[in-house]
Amino acid sequence: MSEEITKSSEKTSQEKPAVKTETEKPKTIPVRRKSEVIVITSGKGGVGKTTTTANVGTGLAKLNKKVVLIDTDIGLRNLDVVMGLENRIVYNLVDVVEGNCRYKQALIKDKTYPNLFLLPSAQTKDKTSVTPEQMKKLVEELKNEFDYILLDCPAGIEQGFKNAIAAADRALIVTTPEVSAIRDADRIIGLLEANEIKKIDLIVNRIRMDMVKRGEMMSIEDVVEILAIDLIGAVPDDENIVISTNQGQPLVGDNSLAGRAYFNICRRVLGEEVEYLDLNDSGFLKKLSKIFKKSN
Amino acid sequence: MGLLDLFNKKKTSGDYAKDRLKLLLVSDRANCSPDVMEQIKNDIIEVISRYMEIDASGLDIQITQTESEGGNGTVPALYANIPIRDLKQKAKPVK
């Protein structure tokens, strides 16, 4: 176990310059781990925070980063199910914070990526079981070992939200092109700014280009204009998301439109400049595949 | 924009959503109650009416966002649209 950790940490430190310069031979100078703590939040529930956490985390692991996902939604844990790791839970976040176990005992290694870990939430406790100070302390410890610490934030702006943002350096705001979701996102952005989280990026989720074309859905540009923060990616409303959640296997990096969109977001999180996907071809491809399915 | 849009200038539901949100967020951000806005409106009418004849029913005030002159993003601004009925100064009754 410990050998594996050092191995993968060497790997990640080698990969860091490679991403920036895009040269074929990465330098082998070991870089001291500079971890980034990202909170994934939205205000409104059901807009895709957990799906986004799972996919961005898995994507970063795919890009050779050492990643830990923390489910901070105490009482309503979900990230374990989306990751397909629900059967492996022994200890949880509250156990770690209360000192019932060491954090390494609670971390669950991903099925596919050995450099990806999940710290599950507690199902039987409530949100007041953890304080922002305890979260900060835990994240500080995790920084020694991980490149990226992703915090899946619960809906709302109460204790659970405060816990999730306490230790964050940056935030990914997930919203859908709906009035209610955007309104809540705006409120969240205000709260994050008040808590001095300077880097806030926007993910517009579940966009349907066919509806945007008809004028029956706000466009990505509309949402960005209203919220006035930087866009880091848009994810189409893709049925493959449902399928991947059914299977407990994040789709990031696969050939689906959502899979490609999420992988691009991961690369942008690392600071790469990636062209935006043309989400328009979804309708065409869908129609085409439907025709083929019918003829079969 | 499709060809249909050229003929059909009706507001789509997406437009409605955007307009509603813009107004909603302004009041959310400003934390300014409709009561206060009404007071501001009445005060503006009172002051401007001293100098010219205005259409009080057509007066529209909003707190919106505008590009700051310093070029550092958007800043909140009080926008007031005050229709003037008669530009000439109201002839005051001579004593």
Textual characterization of the structure:
The complex is a heterodimer of chains A (296) and B (95). With 296 residues, chain A is α/β, with parallel strands linked by helices. Chain A has 2 domains: 1-30, no CATH class; 33-295, Rossmann fold, CATH 3.40.50. In chain A, 46% of the residues lie in helices and 15% in strands. An 8-stranded mixed β-sheet of chain A has the order 3-4-2-5-1-6-7-8, sandwiched between helices. In chain A, helix 6 (132-143) packs parallel to helix 7 (159-166). By secondary structure, chain B is α+β, with helices and mostly antiparallel strands. Chain B has a domain at 33-86. Chain B is built from 3 helices and 4 strands; from the N terminus they run αααββββ. In chain B, the strands form 2 sheets. A two-stranded antiparallel ribbon of chain B has the order 1-4. In chain B, a hairpin with a 6-residue loop joins strand 2 (60-67) and strand 3. Chain B starts with a helix and ends in a 9-residue tail after the last strand. Chains A and B meet through helix 8 and helix 9 of A and helix 2 of B.
Give the mean pLDDT of chain A.
Answer: 88
What portion of residues of chain B belong to β-strands? 15-25%
Average pLDDT of chain B, to the nearest integer?
Answer: 78
The CATH superfamily of the largest domain in chain A is identified as P-loop containing nucleotide triphosphate hydrolases
The proportion of residues in beta strands of chain A is: 5-15%
